[in-house]
Amino acid sequence: MTPYIVGVVVPLVVTLILRNSKGEKKRGLPVDVGGEPGNAIRNRRFTYTVQTAWEGISTLAELFEQSCKKYHDKCFLGTRKLISRDVEVTEDGRSFEKLHLGEYEWLTYGKTFEAVCNFASGLAQLGHNKEERVAIFADTREEWFLALQSCFRRNVTVVTIYSSLGEEALCHSLNETEVTTVICGQKELKKLVEISGQLDTVKRVICMDDEIPSAASSTWSITLFADVERLGRENPVDADLPLPADVAVIMYTSGSTGLPKGVMMTHGNILATISAVMTIVPDLKSNDVYLAYLPLAHILELAAENVMAAVGSAIGYGSPLTLTDTSNKIKKGTKGDATALSPTLMTAVPAILDRVRDGVLKKVNSTGGLSKRLFDLAYSRRLSAVNGSWLGAWGLERILWNFLVFKKVRAILGGHIRFLLSGGAPLSGDTQRFINICLGVSIGQGYGLTETCAGGTFSEFDDTSVGRVGAPLPCSFIKLIDWPEGGYLISDTPLPRGEIVIGGPNVTLGYFKNEEKTRESYKVDERGTRWFYTGDIGQFHPDGCLEIIDRKKDIVKLQHGEYVSLGKVEAVLSVSPYVDNIMLHADPFHSYCVALVVASQSTVEDWALKRGIAFTDFADLCEKEETIKEVQTSLVKEAKKARLEKFEIPAKIKLLSTPWTPESGLVTAALKLKRDVIRKAFSEDLARYLSVLL
């Protein structure tokens, strides 16, 4: 029987609550599954794995067409018009680009479908055959989504590539997939020109912007996006729709270790995740407004935007650098994306939420006086309510504090956010509570991977616990298996622990042209269920919710046999207000750790000014002994608060003044550390810091 969910599940507050003998709500239940022995859990409401939420819909192309017909006259895709582009020069001679952006201008669902059909026809008229692959290499924007859906209507596989990818990884991705057409922005076209001699199969480039750079290569035919759409409008071609098993996307990971791998996702894979999310996010409606700014080359954003399209919501495009009124690229006195859009829904990675929290606290602390005392009182009262009981979290006092204190904080993200989805990395408990209280919204923490189309687990809106990632999505079974070498067993007490394995229709086909790695990470059991071995370590709570506690690759055995979990320690230490980013380093030849710490410029400079410490620039300040001592003291304080062992606390730190960005190549587009790259970049410092303590 093909699983099918009729419509959108009603809000969870009116569903029947299953409780155990202690009154604890059961969110996940044990399930008998095939494959390697382990502790397996399913979603409490589904005995099977969900494949589609719409009768007769089995591909993303069918789902998109259905939505465009159903919501024909509703606003769908919104983009802000550029009013002016200015350059501001600071006192120290640095220049920054500042943008003045107008209000959102909208395409309806009907007009969007027309544009997609026209572009799909234009692509065929340019000579692109459906057997050939298209790469989309650009920042998140309206044209990205249009190009994606256009390719789906011609059953063309899309290769997604992060706009921040370095030259070597870019060449590898394009050549390995034998891409013949690249759709990109003007900025990305310049990158392509620089490596044109290294690209083997590219024949044509479609530029999303209004102009083609003068230095563009003559190696390819280069066409404007608008011209391809016009060509298709004048020469329409019938759709060639895909089947569920056809590969929709080859998504290149951002490559935290080595060259990126291309994950092959079918239409059925992605549709399963989208269908499952529909059952978890409360009361998704066509009047919701979604702010899109994360990379569409990341499965989290691609899945989220397809969910929004499925329910008839509006999608307004922005960017991390124009998100709020105080974002780096927003001209002073003009609106950021959130203010202009007033979204009701957003996705975010923890690093972005951490920045929202740090920005608010910095403003509160700098204001001081009665305002700070009132904020601290309100936060303390709300924290007690949230930690005390779910009902207390939503009582009359909450309304009072929201009106008196937190209304201004809410305005940072437009003032109308009702639900936030966080994924891509673990979210700290402190930040989760801060967002719950100050923005007055639930955060749905999700856990999944590119290899599982972002599907894995998802926390329900009424789960106020921190540090967990929820119960299995209805498209997945989650299983823990023993990892004896690391000391994690499903027989552990009080909670079963082990490597997380995900099974279900959302588990992808494997890695493109990499059978060895595919065989290593994917298995199909005797019942036909496909499983992905994540390498993450988790534990199940009694209510069926998962907590991520470690990662196999992040565990280092020290000289005297102690195990250090690099990711766990970094998560603890990153709470320090002095830390913008941190990487712990350890090896088996030493009995202690050291750390590279990217300092938070505003916090460190504020501290220095209060102490009367003279410095020429931020780099100079980070070299000063008293600065390093202050930051290290803060790290030790956080470590003791979290009850870290002495050997887990970095014995020495290197303070860095330059942020780690995707453009620097030191972090991925999802802001995860590229450990190997960072180790190589700072190898001399790390070797010196380890040896000096011998």
From TrEMBL:
One of its GO terms (molecular function) is long-chain fatty acid-CoA ligase activity. Gene3D superfamilies: N-terminal domain of ligase-like. InterPro entries: AMP-binding_CS (IPR020845), AMP-dep_synth/lig_dom (IPR000873), ANL_N_sf (IPR042099). Keywords: ATP-binding, Ligase, Nucleotide-binding. It catalyses: a long-chain fatty acid + ATP + CoA = a long-chain fatty acyl-CoA + AMP + diphosphate. One of its GO terms (cellular component) is endoplasmic reticulum. It is found in: Cytoplasm. It comes from the Eukaryota. It holds the Pfam family AMP-binding. PROSITE patterns: AMP_BINDING. Residues 98-512 form the AMP-dependent synthetase/ligase domain. Its main location: cytoplasm. PANTHER family: ACYL-COA SYNTHETASE LONG-CHAIN, ISOFORM J, LONG-CHAIN-FATTY-ACID--COA LIGASE. Belongs to the ATP-dependent AMP-binding enzyme family. This is AMP-dependent synthetase/ligase domain-containing protein. It comes from Ficus carica (Common fig). The lineage of its organism: Eukaryota, Viridiplantae, Streptophyta, Embryophyta, Tracheophyta.
